[in-house]
TrEMBL record:
Primary site of residence: membrane
Cited Pfam families: SusD-like_3 (PF14322), SusD_RagB (PF07980)
Location in or out of the cell: Cell outer membrane
Residue ranges of every copy of the RagB/SusD domain listed in the record: 296-519
Name the UniProt record assigns to this protein: RagB/SusD family nutrient uptake outer membrane protein
SusD-like N-terminal domain mapped to chain residues: 81-227
A single Gene Ontology CC term: cell outer membrane
SUPFAM superfamilies noted in UniProt: TPR-like
Residues making up the signal peptide according to the UniProt record: 1-23
InterPro entries per UniProt: SusD-like_N (IPR033985), SusD_RagB_dom (IPR012944), TPR-like_helical_dom_sf (IPR011990)
Species classification: Bacteria, Pseudomonadati, Bacteroidota, Flavobacteriia, Flavobacteriales
Family membership: Belongs to the SusD family.
């Protein structure tokens, strides 16, 4: 990984002057007093917090959660499908991303390292500042460790063997996947040691501010990193720490996790903050921030139902059917179905329109499935064509912690204990007691049950393919055949394609970089 720093020096010198004068090079390098530099910027408490705010800013652009990262996380799962006319998007779910065209995945890769670079600036410069608020200093460093860990988490998880910048340098050599996970774990551990459980009781420039990384967020991602590397004992201990904080609880209404009406709620460990009211009206496509940029997301228009947006992502019929496998205790269909997707059901409305009436003249749409999560579809907006969704992206929810903890209990020999934490998630949506419905499951049966529970709790949230990959289903011929029967996009899977290719620009700029297998 190579970073280039460009210094623009304004001047107009004739050839005669350049060749005859005795002016030294140092005399020509003048510092513009109106432009902040690294040497002049990192001086105060305010500088420190603005520096870490810039690291958060990399979560808001197209490469990350404005659009690209949700697409990359969602499209390879058996809960989604894509018929996008854009080949770069269409091919993600078909495991056919093109090495010569890095659109979408390359933008994500670039932005992760932009965020890492910004976090490294904080970690390099803030310790040198004689801050008036020592506790604030610790919190800022904790947030920088968390953000670096989060960006590295995505890079290591999605691109396998990547550079691991932990300081500001020119070149960063490619590291192994194992080394990558070790660094992710180290960053989240450092963050957890420095961060508060919340910002409601702190004083200083960040007091009471929502959206900043907390101890619970760092521990949650630390546990997730342990789980992804199959260190179930450490993952179990870490998830229990999150539970024991006593900060988090499931919200009563499942859908409240995907609208702009109940953001930063008790179930959310960490979410990306979008807002229609903040900043300008332009979308942050990437690069240096511009004054007109807003803080809005393009996810909604990308996933929106036909005629309300681009419909580049849709739920699968496999997902729809699996929601009908088990009725609630009142005999109803799992309410998460209606919170997840639109379909032709009496009374279903979208953007103030009756579904059946709106699509009556188009049988294909009338009998199709469309995304509802993260859509501004409850009647306040006519469609998503302004590209400006203000719905926060929930990256880590407490229900995920509960189900991951249950998985760890099962993998460490306490299968009976897993029932309790699975049931906490099931009870929220009125599903029967699992210990009565399926008593006495062994470890293998419980693994399958956890796969089912996670499939229905987290569709369209970027978790399903991570689960498929970490469970080794793509290397299991029986499971792979099962996935193909559920989602035809798996028919084009080839070994190694569970990871994205290293972008060609990285290959060109970082000599010695080895491309991922399968490309």
């Amino acid at each position: 990984m190579k970073y280039k720093i460009f210094k623009y020096i304004a001047g107009c010198f004739s050839l005669a002057i350049v060749t005859t004068s005795c002016v030294n090079n140092e005399d020509l390098l003048q510092v513009d007093p109106n432009v902040a530099t690294a040497d002049s910027f990192w001086k105060t408490d305010q500088d420190a917090i603005e520096g870490v705010n810039a690291a958060y800013g990399s979560l808001l652009t197209d490469g990350t959660y404005m659009r690209s990262t949700p697409l990359l996380l969602d499209l390879k799962g058996d809960d989604t499908r894509s018929n996008s006319p854009w080949d770069a998007m269409y091919n993600v779910g078909r495991f056919n991303s093109n090495v010569s065209n890095s659109a979408i995945y390359g933008w994500a890769y670039e932005t992760y390292y932009q965020g890492i670079y910004r976090a490294n600036q904080v970690l390099t410069n803030v310790p040198k500042i004689e801050m008036t608020d020592a506790a604030l200093k610790s919190r800022i460093l904790g947030q920088a460790y968390f953000l670096r860990g989060l960006y590295l988490f995505h890079a290591v998880n999605m691109f396998k063997s990547v550079p691991l910048p932990t300081e500001i340098a020119v070149y960063y050599p490619q590291k192994t996947n194992e080394e990558g996970w070790a660094q992710v774990i180290a960053d989240f551990k450092a963050a957890a040691d420095l961060l508060p459980a919340s910002y409601t009781s702190v004083t200083g420039l960040d007091a009471g501010q929502k959206g900043r990384a907390t101890k619970g967020a760092a521990l949650g991602y630390l546990g997730k990193a342990y789980l992804f590397t199959k260190d179930f004992e450490k993952a179990k201990t870490t998830f229990k720490q999150v539970i024991d904080l006593g900060v988090y609880s499931l919200v009563a209404n499942y859908r409240d996790n995907f609208t702009d009406t109940n953001e930063n709620n008790s179930e959310s460990l960490f979410e990306v903050q979008f807002s229609r009211a903040a900043g300008g009206v332009d979308l942050g496509w990437g690069g240096a921030p511009a004054s007109g940029w807003g803080k809005t997301s393009a996810r909604a228009i990308t996933y929106a139902p036909r005629a309300f947006g681009w419909t580049d992502v849709q739920p699968t019929w496999t997902l729809y059917n699996e929601f009908h496998d088990e009725l609630t205790t009142s005999g109803a269909v799992d309410p998460r179905l209606d919170a997840t997707m639109f379909y032709n059901k009496p009374g279903v409305k979208l953007y103030g329109q009756d579904f059946a009436t709106f699509y009556a003249k188009n049988a294909g749409d009338l009998n199709d499935l469309f995304c509802r999560k993260y859509e501004n579809s409850d009647g306040n907006y006519a469609n998503e064509y302004d590209w400006r969704s203000g719905i926060n992206e929930r990256l880590l929810r407490y229900s995920d912690v509960l189900l991951m903890y249950a998985e760890c209990l099962n993998e460490t020999g306490d299968t009976p204990g897993a029932y309790t934490y699975i049931q906490m998630v099931r009870s929220r949506v009125g599903l029967p007691n699992l210990s009565t419905a399926k008593p006495g499951m062994n470890q293998v049966a419980m693994r399958e049950q956890i796969g089912h529970e996670r499939f229905l709790e987290f569709p369209l949230e970027g978790h399903r393919f991570d689960d498929i990959r970490r469970w080794g289903w793509l290397q299991n011929s029986t499971k792979l055949a099962w996935l193909k029967s559920r989602d035809v996009e798996f028919n084009s899977y080839a070994t190694g394609r569970e990871f994205f290719p290293i972008p060609q620009l990285e290959m060109d700029n970082n000599p010695g970089t080895v491309q991922n297998d399968g490309y």
